[in-house]
């Protein structure tokens, strides 16, 4: 009897192997927080947010633009600006220029920042979005130049600046040139404040280093996505420095909100509507009203 219940080896036919080979590898997405499996199309439709636990996956720059901008309203600026190699930096025989070229081929972007003009509910805004896939969205000289130019254009056009930041900090391959971008980007925002135009900063996971220490946290309104890690140095470095255990949830968006470091924690699904409301309030206060004919129908539902 024991022989009857022994597990028999299973052999697959060539037809079954053909079917398996036709199934795409990216059909399902697994949440790293709760382990829930989601059908990829539904996952994308839900803006890459886990429907079970609310975990927010990372988005690239183009996905961020599609999330915030009205359809076909994005006009990109400064496409011709690409990283330079002012120090002749190299590691293990690979130069900074070669690394940037390889990263561009892999990520599809020429720099960690994409900037341009968009409309949200028909209201114009300058948008600066980082792409973490390009060298950890580290801040170099082109990064700072694009953001500074976007700020100047926003001031000239009398509309707000929206920045979406996810970064590992300054780009050390550019040495002092990268560190100077902290002062440069912060100074560029003064033109907006002089005209009473808002800078709305959106902090996403992860946002660290010189980006957090400069323009990203001197905004008029600071918004973070749920669960986003935001800080200057990482928790492990801080614990080794102060020789103390950090509190639970340290550097998460919820922890920073509780301690007054940010203004709002907004889920991705409500992000566009929240920014629309803030733009409306600030632009009315500044007297930079958009003509009614430029406002699209259904602005309240944006």
Poorly predicted ranges:
292-302
Largest sheet properties: 7 strands, mixed
What gyration radius follows from the Cα positions, in whole Å? 23 Å
Percent of residues in helices comes to: 25-40%
Mean of all residue-level pLDDT scores: 88
**Based on DSSP secondary structure assignment, what is the total number of beta strands?**
11
Which H/E pattern describes the elements?
Answer: HEEHHEEEHEEHEHHEHEHHEH
Total domains: 2
Which secondary-structure class do the elements indicate? alpha/beta
CATH fold-type name of the largest domain = 2-enoyl-CoA Hydratase, Chain A, domain 1
Q: Give the CATH level 1 class of the largest domain.
A: Alpha Beta
Q: How are strands sequenced across the largest beta sheet?
A: 3-6-7-8-9-10-11
Count of alpha/pi helices: 11
From the spread of the alpha carbons, the general shape counts as: globular
**Subunit organisation of the chains:** single chain
Distance between the termini: 68 Å
CATH superfamily of the largest domain: 2-enoyl-CoA Hydratase, Chain A, domain 1
What attributes does this structure have?
302 residues, alpha/beta, 2-enoyl-CoA Hydratase, Chain A, domain 1, 7-stranded mixed β-sheet, two-stranded antiparallel sheet, 11 helices, 11 strands, globular, disordered C terminus
Describe this structure in words.
The longest helix is centred in the middle third of the chain and has 17 residues, at 141-157. The chain is globular and about 50 Å long. The protein has helices spanning 14-22, 40-45, 61-68, 96-107, 141-157, 176-188, 190-194, 209-212, 235-242, 253-258, 271-286, and strands spanning 28-30, 37-39, 75-77, 90-91, 94-95, 113-120, 123-130, 161-167, 199-207, 221-224, 264-265. By secondary structure, the chain is an alpha/beta fold. The strands form three sheets. The chain has a seven-stranded mixed β-sheet with strand order 3-6-7-8-9-10-11, sandwiched between helices. Helix 5 (141-157) packs parallel to helix 6. It has two domains: 10-57, no CATH class; 59-301, 2-enoyl-CoA Hydratase, Chain A, domain 1 (Alpha-Beta Complex), CATH 3.90.226.10.
């Amino acid at each position: 009897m024991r022989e009857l219940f022994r597990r028999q080896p299973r052999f697959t036919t060539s037809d079954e192997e053909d079917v398996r080979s036709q199934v795409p590898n990216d059909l399902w997405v697994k949440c790293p927080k709760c382990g829930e499996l989601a059908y990829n199309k539904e996952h994308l439709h839900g803006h890459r947010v886990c429907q079970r636990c609310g975990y927010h996956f990372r988005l690239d720059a183009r996905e961020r633009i599609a999330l915030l901008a009205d359809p076909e309203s994005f006009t990109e600026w400064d496409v011709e600006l690409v990283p330079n190699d002012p120090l002749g930096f190299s590691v293990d025989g690979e130069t900074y220029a070669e690394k940037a070229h390889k990263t561009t081929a892999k990520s599809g972007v020429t720099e960690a920042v994409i900037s341009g003009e968009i409309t949200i509910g028909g209201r114009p805004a300058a948008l600066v979005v980082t792409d973490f896939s390009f060298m950890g969205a580290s801040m170099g000289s082109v990064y700072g130049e694009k953001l500074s130019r976007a700020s100047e254009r926003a001031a000239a056009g009398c509309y707000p600046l929206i920045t979406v930041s996810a970064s590992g900090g300054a780009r050390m391959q550019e040495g002092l040139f990268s560190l100077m971008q902290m002062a440069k980007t912060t100074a560029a925002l003064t033109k907006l404040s002089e005209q009473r135009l808002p800078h709305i900063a959106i902090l996403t996971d992860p946002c660290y280093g010189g980006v957090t220490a400069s323009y990203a946290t001197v905004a008029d309104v600071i918004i973070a996505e749920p669960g986003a890690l935001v800080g200057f140095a990482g928790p492990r470095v801080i614990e080794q420095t102060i020789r103390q255990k950090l509190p639970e949830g340290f550097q998460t968006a919820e922890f920073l909100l509780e301690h007054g470091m940010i203004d709002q924690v907004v889920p991705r699904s409500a992000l566009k509507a929240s920014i629309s409301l803030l733009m409306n309030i600030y632009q009315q206060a500044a007297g930079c009203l958009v003509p009614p004919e430029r406002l699209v129908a259904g602005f309240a539902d944006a």
